[in-house]
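Continued from yesterday's entry.
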Amino acid sequence: MLIKGKNWRPVIAVIVLLMLSCKSNKVTIPKGIEPPDTLVNLLTDVHVLQAMTIVEGTPNLKPNTSDDILTSVCRKHHITVADYKKTLGFYSSHIELLDSVYVRVLDTLSKRKAELRGKTQP
């Protein structure tokens, strides 16, 4: 059955809408936001330093210890704390992207743990 006259226009419109709805949901990282690789490194270092602080059982933890850790990590990676917070805010609003970053953070931490265990075992 062929569609004659103007009856084909709604069919074409539906096809076009379906094609547009199937487009990629890839998120573009805007200027001023750190790329995923950098955020993985930042978050890994933040979590390692936080864990070291807890494990060492420092009895005189200051309330601003987290701020000190964050400042130290940002300095190491040559970004400002404001840029870190802006970056984390962006990724937090794109949860799939943040999830993929944290998968890599956990993988990196697991590899470091395995390396440390290998060095301490005879």
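--- second protein ---
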Amino acid sequence: MLVSGTSLMCVQQRQRNDSRAHTKYHVKHSGSNYLAFTGSKHYQYFCKGDAMNLKLADFKMMETRSPNGVQVILRFGGKYDLSIVQNELSYGNKQGLYEIAVFDDVNRVELPGITADGDTVKGWLTEKDVDNIIKKMYTVTKEIPVQV
């Protein structure tokens, strides 16, 4: 179902703030969020009221081949990307746990409250731990994440 009117406002706002704004989006409503499609790419948008309820399960983990595993990258505005991985090289993978890293442009960075001082990667995270990190990233950036 194509959404319109006020339901589409959060997606339209994200389009204006997105470097892909010139791209035509096909938008579908899915629960409390909106899915935007451009060609074969899939972007997921959330409205502000949903931001504190975001969970890893709200996003689609993508398969990776080198190293073998899964990953999702969440963009928080134009400043930070949060990479969430579970692969054959990630910390905690053998226990079914996740590893995260925060990127500022192309560099991994420390982010107080997200990563430890002197560290740019945080591993051995449960799904609930990752859910809390997504919420903290929203709190720090005041930006609703977009899956890229």
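Residues 5-52 form one domain. The radius of gyration is 15 Å. Will compare against the first tomorrow.
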